Amino acid sequence: MSPVNVTLSRLDGLFIARLAEQAERYHDVIAQIKSIVHSTNAQLTSDERNLLSIAYKNITASFRTSWRTIDTLQRNTVHHSTWQQRQLMQRQKERIEQDLIDTCKDVVELLERFLIPAANPGEEKVFYCKMRGDYYRYLAEMSRSQTHEQYAATSLDAYKFAYKHALNTLDPAHPTRLGLALNFAVYYHDIRQSPERACFLAKHAFDEAMAVVTDVSVHPQSLEDSLTILHLLKDDLLLWAGEMTVESK
């Protein structure tokens, strides 16, 4: 019997990516979306780019959780573990670090070579530039000394560009703009250790969004997403304000 030549259409690829996402096979999701990127001059639909974002987020979140778990174990057992055990824990942590670094560099390359250059102004460009800022932030978390500063500076540039573009093109209550503001504030808190700047940015975004969030023209799904992010912004504001109060005593 002669082999059957099967050519997947874009809809087929999207269906497989959705199926893989439901099955939590996130590398398969990325492979399918990458195939679509290369066959469509990097013009993704909202559904396609959301699937890509979800897949990378889940993979990196798993690595970051694993890294923090081992880091905590190292600190908690430093006085009652053997030298060999400490070496094994360090080796495992370094393996996780490398897996995370490789994943971040993979998504950054996809963004910088294909998605950002082809992005339309507005939500699409903000979405991708925010992703670029996020994954350079993760790289900064995993690196030290000069490399840390390089990644931190690149992340800051990406967030600044995305936020300036968001201010000019997106409504204050738009979930993509709010999500960017949240992550940008986290950058200032976690990477720059500046709860003051984090609070300033988060409060500005929160206040502007609250002034328009009840607009009846907002799509119900967008409104739900916006309210979720507003709750996260409020929680972080309270947490960071508490840190500043403790530090001032």
TrEMBL record:
Specify the domain of life of the species encoding this protein: Eukaryota
Q: Where is this site: Interaction with phosphoserine on interacting protein?
A: 64, 137
Pfam hit, one: 14-3-3
Domain named 14-3-3 is located at: 10-249
What protein family is recorded?
Belongs to the 14-3-3 family.
Protein name as annotated: 14-3-3-like protein
Q: Which organism is it from?
A: Laetiporus sulphureus 93-53
